[in-house]
Design brief:
With 138 residues, the chain is an all-alpha fold. The protein has a domain of 91 residues. The protein has five helices and no strands. About 4% of the residues have low confidence.
């Protein structure tokens, strides 16, 4: 369903145009770009995900305590974590929309949702299963 709207937005006419002070060279400025290997990016991806996963586990304890104390549904905790994960990309998408950058807005919003659903959730579930299995061995 999202791909339908993405294709419609990409093929529909839009009021998007470059402003007078913005040129195509400004949009594609890649001077000084250093190309790195796949291993480099993969290792930094893992290193950047590790603190997030560890912090989310401790934050989940705080949220679980709050939901249990206030007798709120457990699903609210997952909802709050999802909001925290999606907030930075959401803010970036809104800023791009306010700047009349339609393509960037759609790319950020769909990329954020896809990465959260397709990568973050499975990785956190896998790490939770692994840590639970390791803690049961001890």
């Amino acid at each position: 369903m999202c791909s339908y709207f993405y294709r419609r937005a990409g093929t529909a006419t839009s009021s998007y145009s470059l402003s007078s002070d913005e040129t195509t060279e400004d949009l594609h400025d890649h001077e000084g770009l250093v190309v790195r290997s796949i291993g480099y990016h993969a290792s930094f991806l893992v290193l950047s995900m590790l603190p997030i996963v560890l912090l989310s586990k401790s934050m989940a304890k705080i949220i679980d305590y709050g939901t249990n104390t206030l007798d709120l549904p457990q699903a609210l905790g997952g909802f709050l974590i999802a909001i925290l994960i999606l907030t930075p990309e959401g803010i970036s998408a809104v800023k791009a929309a306010l700047a009349n950058k339609l393509q960037r807005t759609i790319n950020i919003a769909l990329g954020s949702a896809t990465s959260t659903i397709g990568m973050t959730v499975p990785v956190i579930l896998a790490i939770s299963l692994i840590t639970a299995a390791l803690s049961s061995l001890v």
